[in-house]
Write a structure and sequence with these properties.
Blueprint: H1 2-8, H2 13-51, H3 62-76, H4 88-91, H5 99-117, H6 120-128, H7 136-166, H8 182-219, E1 230-235, E2 239-244, H9 246-265, H10 269-296, H11 304-337
Antiparallel strand pairs: 1-2
Helix pairs in contact: 1-10, 2-3, 2-8, 2-9, 2-10, 3-8, 3-9, 5-10, 5-11, 8-9, 10-11
Length: about 350
């Protein structure tokens, strides 16, 4: 938001802020859903290993979502982060699917791809941590090239292998598609869980800081207890102290509870990720960065570079719009066969 304000002016800040914080909150919802799915998959694979491949091993993910939310409530009270120490023939399989369903799934997949490549909310924060002598912009160009290149290679390989193995039945969460070898699948799911437990706070802390800063400014003049710092000392082998404010304790807890409830209402892995990617991809990854660059580089309207950027922006906007349509269609399709607050594997 500060970069947008500096280069594009204050009138763009509100829109960029809404999109950025919506994306951050959406990622928290996605992490909650994914963690529950990965945890339930470990239990389900254990059931298959114990009872056989043909056993009925239905596992509910609600309890895992609640457990994840409880853990994130605890972690949310910690100090802020800066203070803490196939082939085309196979891919086209699925003749039993309606044509419209295939189209919606293709559009939804575009949103999933966009979600994978959107890291604009962290890009400037990463650059801010870089040290001289090498200029930050030169270092970030190399980092971005390697990161995007590696991401493209990884996801393209994973997608091709998924369609080659499962065809049109490829699962949204790849690790739920098979259960052998058991040890390898469980380790992979456990790694996902550990990553998401910690990664959740990376995005949540930004929202917490914004809310608490706003409240501190609003209540400071009134000397409210809401922002008063309290210290709790724990007598162990060493003396430990824990500081908190009522605003941090109540607001962070309430926000995590609300996020968990929303995730439980709409536990649709692919559709949620596709929707998040589609609504944030064009504004945060394309529109604002391109316009900021054109202002900084003094690119005039009508120049060949300006025309190229406008065409690129328009194409990406179309991708975002169709992926929104596909993701919403996917959610509506899931709602026909699913219940709110009910996730099963």
């Amino acid at each position: 938001m500060d970069a947008v304000r500096a280069l594009l002016g204050p009138k763009h800040v509100l829109i960029s802020g809404i999109m950025q914080y919506s994306m951050l909150w959406g990622i928290m919802i996605g992490f909650t859903i994914t963690t529950a799915i990965s945890t339930a998959t470990i239990k389900r694979s254990a059931c298959f290993h114990e009872k056989g491949a043909n056993a009925k091993c239905k596992v509910s993910g609600n309890s895992y979502m609640l457990a994840f939310g409880a853990l994130e409530i605890l972690l949310s009270q910690f100090p802020n982060l800066e203070k803490a120490k196939g082939t085309i023939k196979v891919a086209m399989a699925g003749e039993d699917l309606a044509t419209s369903t295939k189209i919606w799934q293709v559009f939804q997949a575009l949103g999933n791809i966009a979600f994978s490549y959107t890291y604009s909310m962290l890009l400037l924060e990463i650059q801010d941590t870089l040290k001289s002598p090498q200029a930050e912009n030169k270092a970030m160009k190399r980092v971005t090239l390697y990161a995007i290149g590696g991401t493209a290679l990884f996801y393209t390989s994973l997608g091709c292998m998924g369609y080659a193995a499962f065809g049109a039945d490829v699962p949204g969460n790849y690790l739920t598609g098979f259960y052998k070898p058991l040890w390898l699948v469980d380790i992979a799911n456990l790694a996902v869980i550990i990553h998401l437990i910690v990664g959740y706070q990376v995005f949540a802390q930004t929202i917490f800081a914004m809310n608490e800063k706003s409240l501190a400014t609003r209540w400071q003049a009134h000397g409210s207890f809401f922002n008063k710092i309290y210290t709790v000392r724990l007598q162990c082998k060493q003396d430990y102290s824990f500081q908190f404010t009522p605003s941090r304790l109540l607001l962070r807890t309430g926000f995590v509870i609300f996020t968990t409830l929303v995730a439980m209402m709409f536990p649709f892995f692919n559709a949620i990720l596709g929707l998040l990617g589609s609504i944030s991809f064009w504004p945060l990854t394309v529109y604002f960065p391109l316009n900021m660059y054109m202002v900084q580089a003094n690119i005039k309207r009508g120049d060949s570079t300006w025309i190229m950027f406008q065409v690129l922006s328009l194409l990406c906007l179309v991708v975002s719009l169709v992926s929104v349509i596909g993701s919403v269609a996917g959610m509506l399709e899931h709602l026909k066969h699913a219940q709110l607050f009910h996730i099963n594997l």
